[in-house]
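Below is a filled-in request sheet from our internal design queue. Each sheet records the structural input a requester submitted and the sequence that came back. We keep these sheets so that new team members can see what a complete request looks like end to end.

REQUESTER: design group, bay 2
PRIORITY: normal
MODE: inverse folding
CHAIN LENGTH: 270
BACKBONE (tokenized):
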């Protein structure tokens, strides 16, 4: 279901001078015009750290199609999503500048790579604290999610996976996730260490990624992991409905049933 920003853009009509709905509609169209333009062909060469451990990033069939390439890639972001990304990007940029002003930053926007499995991305910053280099990753979130993180003291699992990948790639042992409340800009630091438990978690993730990549390298198309979707031949769950390659995935002439059964990546709840 598309979420419309127009519902949150209310302006009382002043006689015949202003039409609140027309003004709100124009603003919403302005938001939608900022969506990423569709590309004629999209092909992933590596796993993206920010996509691992969440939604379609846990599906080997998605990665098979993404590695194969498609001209039907869909980033169907509604106006609310565009607004959220815009606010998140602005807060993110502000925090990066704040970190630089603190004098802690050693390097920002650091490219990271792993060869096996192939992973490539950019971490927000490497900072120095008490003569130790730490990985810093910034995340913006809603107030309710921020409050939950504050009470639990634990990050979202996909965020933990992302920073653990960065630790693996850089050879560093410690870092932190910097959560920012989009409602009032309060901040929360959650330290992350490559300890025994986290080492086990990231090794399991890396092994699943190797399995997914091997399926592509061997041209073994994974079976749709959702029974209902597989039987109905159409997206019947949230992950499939929001997947950018769903058109190709459910196109029987393009991709068949599949030949290898790779379960979804297991992502533990923290």
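RETURNED SEQUENCE:
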């Amino acid at each position: 279901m598309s979420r419309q920003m127009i519902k949150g853009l209310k302006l009382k009509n002043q006689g015949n001078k202003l039409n609140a709905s027309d003004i709100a509609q124009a603003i919403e169209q302005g938001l939608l015009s900022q969506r990423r333009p569709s590309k004629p062909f999209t092909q992933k060469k590596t796993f993206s750290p920010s996509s691992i451990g969440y939604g379609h990033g846990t599906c080997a069939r998605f990665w098979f199609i993404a590695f194969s390439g498609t001209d039907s890639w869909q980033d169907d972001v509604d106006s609310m999503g565009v607004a959220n990304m815009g606010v998140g990007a602005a807060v993110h940029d502000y925090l990066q500048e704040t970190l630089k002003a603190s004098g802690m930053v050693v390097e920002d926007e650091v490219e990271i790579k792993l060869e096996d499995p192939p992973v490539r991305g950019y971490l927000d910053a490497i900072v120095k604290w008490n003569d130790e280099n730490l990985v810093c990753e910034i995340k913006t979130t809603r107030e309710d999610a921020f409050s939950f993180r504050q009470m639990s003291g634990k990050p979202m699992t996909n965020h933990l996976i992302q920073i653990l990948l960065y630790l693996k790639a850089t050879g560093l042992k410690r870092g932190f996730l910097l959560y920012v409340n989009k409602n009032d800009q309060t901040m929360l630091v959650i330290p992350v260490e490559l300890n025994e438990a986290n080492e086990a978690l990231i090794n399991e993730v890396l092994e699943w990624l190797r399995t997914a990549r091997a399926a592509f390298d061997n041209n073994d198309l994974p079976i749709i992991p959702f029974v209902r979707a597989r039987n109905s031949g159409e997206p019947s769950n949230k992950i499939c409905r929001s997947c950018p390659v769903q058109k190709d995935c459910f196109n029987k002439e393009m991709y068949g049933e599949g030949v290898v059964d790779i379960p979804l990546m297991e992502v533990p709840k923290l």
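SHEET NOTES:
- The mean pLDDT is 88.
- The radius of gyration is 21 Å.
FILED BY: M.R.
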